[in-house]
Amino acid sequence: METVHALLESRRRDRMPALIDAASGETLTGTALAARVADRARTLVAAGVRPGDRVALLVPNSLACAETLLAAATAGAAAVPINLRWTASEVDHLLADAEPRLLVAAEERVRALGPLAHCAPLLSPDALLASGPCPRRRRPTTPRSSSTRQAPPGARRAPC
Questions:
Q1: What is d(CA 66, CA 159) in angstroms, rounded to the nearest whole number?
Q2: Which of 45, 50, 104, 151, CA to CA, is 20 to 30 A from 143?
Q3: 133: confidence class by pLDDT, cuts 50, 70, 90
């Protein structure tokens, strides 16, 4: 397999377990995983994520986290996981450096960190399930500068 997208497509008809949440015991087959990742990828694209963008994730280890990591790759974006144990200063430094298009996190978690100077538009992990056609993969055209960043459609400004 050359890409995450190709790997997911190859497992689309697979009824065998593909992902297991050790904490809850929930199991996803290849078919279910591919469908859930496609739903999350569609939502990321609808929220303005384009190939070459970065998507920051401040979510606990879970099926939703794994699905969102895979969805970012499917949308052509790079996932930027954030350690949940980091301080606000550490998170802020990462957000300033990575310049993510979106921050996927629960609003309460971001609010608990306190003020962040470099907060990206916030998208809840629960809001990432949608419907519609799967996004087509495209190559990035030109890099965007941080001075042109705006909140993508469907995203909210984080309480930073």
A1: 25
A2: 104
A3: very low
